[in-house]
Amino acid sequence: MAIEQSRAAARHFELSRRSFLRGAGACVALPFLESLGIGKLAANQSGATRLAQTASGAPLRTAFVYFPNGAIPAQWWPDRPGTDSTWSRTLRPLDGFKGQLQVLGQIDHHTADGGRDGGGDHARGNGTWLTGVRLNKSATDIRAGISIDQVMARQVGHLTRFPSLELACDSTPRSGGCDSGYACAYQYNISWANDRTPMAAETNPRQLFERLFGQGDRGQRLALQHRRQQEERSVLDFVLDDARAMQRRLSAQDQRKLDQYLTGVRALETRIGQAERLGRAIDPEIDTPAGIPTEFADHLQIMYDIMVLAFQADYTRVISFCQAHDGSNRSFDHIGIAEGHHDLTHHRNSPERIAKVADIDLWYVQQFSRLLEKLNAVRDDDGRTLLENSMIVFGSGNADGNRHTHANLPVLLAGSGGGTLHPGRYVRHNNTPMTNLFLGLAGKMGLQNVDRFGDSTGRLDDI
Predict the structure, then answer these.
(1) How many domains does the chain contain in total?
(2) What CA–CA distance (Å, rounded) separates 391 from 376?
(3) 447: which residues sit within 8 A by CB, 6+ positions away?
(4) Scanning 165, 167, 238, 443, which has its CA 20 to 30 A from the CA of 189?
(5) Which spans in 88-145 are helix H?
(6) Euclidean distance between CA atoms 438 and 130, whole angstroms
(7) pLDDT tens profile 164-217
(8) Based on the domain organization, do 293 and 427 belong to the same domain?
(9) Nearest 5°: CA angle at 185, between 183 and 189?
(10) Do 306 and 388 have their domain in common?
(11) Within this chain, do residues 120 and 248 fall inside the same structural domain, yes or no?
């Protein structure tokens, strides 16, 4: 009898162990982790009722959109500062949005300058753009800094289903060096959770869409999402019961491992509870994207469309989008340019090559114009448009791609920030660190205790 009981207990323990591991798989597959600060954010929620909101109470959204390899300066800047300037050929597609745009001149990122580190301006352009810190030049010893989008997400992310979204159109090399001895992680990421951890960007529109709105055909997604949520709760209940039964049998080391695992389980509990508190999900009246399109323009526009949907549904208020990594040598055959973008930027003052780079710059601005058009077509809860209730930074980490400079970066700021920004002008900001701009945006979002960031020297209020 004792032998049978012992065998039964062993079978129960083995079954529980396998079920527990199956539960672990379900947990790991979800995007939220305690290490990203979910517990702390939830604790701060009660004191942050005005975070990322406009004066009318509508959500205030912020996005950072990156384009590679700088721009041809002579064809980027308007003819003079002020509200009545004539915009350049490159910016002309944005003429219809002049009242919702600021051209920000003399914004610098000197932390991306070569100095003693020499080459590697493309890696520094990407890695510094949202961090404002000096990168450690190494292919293995990664040291950057938290990016401003993640500073924002840590304070406002609890207000939405997703603290932030990180998007890209280029797949990221997992390891190794890419640019003059810098880690590939620098060159392919603009969003960083901390000094050693880039935020993994989603490149597949289908996976991004299903992460946001669920799997299935339109009209079926909400039912499937509800069913998955119930299954997740069942798994959580089982896992927690199983973990308590197991804990008495484990060594001290295994108990520590179990505690680490349960941290993820508790984060998932928070995730599910938060989704329930935030109200009913939505099922967009569009088909799920098929995957990564063959054409770059299609890929980029689908990602822009999903950005608009995510902001419209208030699923997140913080997005970063790296359209292409700095140093990208993509050709643009669809506009008649067969040479690689990066190769062309080293134009050596050839008028023909300069003209081709300017056409690529123009193409990126045309795509951005379509994003603004889509944001401007959606009415928000307070009657303003999504564009009016947004702050969208569009720019590059290099200024003149021919010389690899990082002063007077090409930067636009779109939107009215819910009435807090002053668009419709071109302003020269007297060689101000870009991190000062980030502090200004953080202040508009209502972030607390963000007085310094990267190499900032103060808050840029004239925006």
Answers:
(1) 2
(2) 13
(3) 51, 151, 152, 155, 156
(4) 443
(5) 121-129
(6) 8
(7) 999 999 987 666 789 899 999 999 999 999 999 999 999 988 888 788 776 655
(8) yes
(9) 140
(10) yes
(11) no
Kindly state the tokens that stand for 179: 């640019």
- Secondary structure E strands in 175-302: 177-179, 182-183, 192-194, 197-198
Give the DSSP H/E element, type plus range, for residue 255. helix 252-277
Same domain, yes or no: 272 and 421: no
CA quadruple 380, 383, 384, 390: dihedral, nearest 10: -30
Are 63 and 308 in contact, with CB atoms under 8 Å apart? no
Residue count of the chain, please give it.
463
What stretches in the chain show pLDDT beneath 70?
1-49, 173-175, 214-249, 253-254, 256-287, 290
Structural domain boundaries enclosing 263: 15-47+221-287
Structure tokens at 284: 């967009």
- 8 inside domain: no
Q: Give the H/E segment covering residue 390.
A: strand 390-395
Element spanning 395, H or E: strand 390-395
Q: Which CATH number does the domain housing residue 185 bear?
A: 3.40.720
60 lies in some domain? yes
133 and 193 assigned to the same domain: yes
Measure the CA dihedral 441/284/382/226, to 10°: -90
Determine the distance from the C-alpha atom of residue 210 to the mean position of all C-alpha atoms in its chain, rounded to a whole number.
Answer: 17
Summarised one tens digit per residue, pLDDT across range 298-318 is: 999 999 999 998 999 898 999
275 with 366, same domain: the answer is no
Q: 86-134: per-residue pLDDT in tens? A: 999 999 999 999 999 999 999 999 999 999 999 999 999 999 999 999 9
Residue type, 183: A
The string of DSSP letters for 365-383 reads HHHHHHHHHHHHTSB-TTS
